[in-house]
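Hi everyone,

Forwarding the result from last night's run.
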Amino acid sequence: MDLVLNVADYYVLTPYVYPASWPEDGALRQIISLLVLTNLGAAVLYLGLGVIAYYFIFDHNLMKHPHFLENQVQREIKYAMTSLPWISIPTVALFFAEVRGFSKLYDNVSDSPLGWPGLFLSMISFLFFTDMCIYWIHRFLHHKLIYKLFHKPHHLWKIPTPFASHAFHPVDGFMQGLPYHIYPFLFPLHKVLYLALYVFVNIWTISIHDGDYRVPSSLTDVINGSAHHTDHHLFFDYNYGQYFTLWDRLGGSYRYPSALMGKGPHDLIRKLQAEGKLGDDRVRCKEE
């Protein structure tokens, strides 16, 4: 995160925002800057990527589904934009530790013990490490003693849109994001690659909520795509994974996507339309 902070300092914060008496390496200044940059970055990624996915990828026919809530898109956005500032507070504490040099992030490829192959290996290990951690955190959040407190708000969206991707309770959102921030404290990782993975994580999180159920047949049993994750929203106890199906298979929670078996949301919509039960005056599903 210090790369982003350095750029912001050089072009904006030092010349136009902070007085000269506030040094760039001052702790208070860094914390304030990180809070602003983290919230701004989160909002830009969420809204920017969400708008692209909503208008160019999301199938708006899904909004005809009986489980699609009234004013759902606006409610998803409102919930996410309310939660993100709270999620940023503990996140900034971790970013601050990175900036102060407590992580294993490095600047140059030559700093990696394995050079360029090390970058590739760290990318793969990042994906598998975070996928494993998120699987178990996600299952924990479904425990009956925890679920209603923190995770239930995200399951209001049984037919999610891209804007549901970040519509979490703040505790839920931080816990599921924690593995991404823990990784560079445990394993070496290039700073630029870390930023690239951070953007990728946001893209992926939106993509598994975008309603595009197409998955290459050769990857259906390996990749946890939107069809898999939609079944998680619909059927609750399945497909907890983030990128892969590995831990769902090991944990006995894997479910082959209903959308790929002709039993998904689109199929129900077509069935109801054929039966004349789905019109413009239909009653939308209310909150549970």
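Confidence is low (pLDDT under 50) at residues 281-288.

Cheers,
N.
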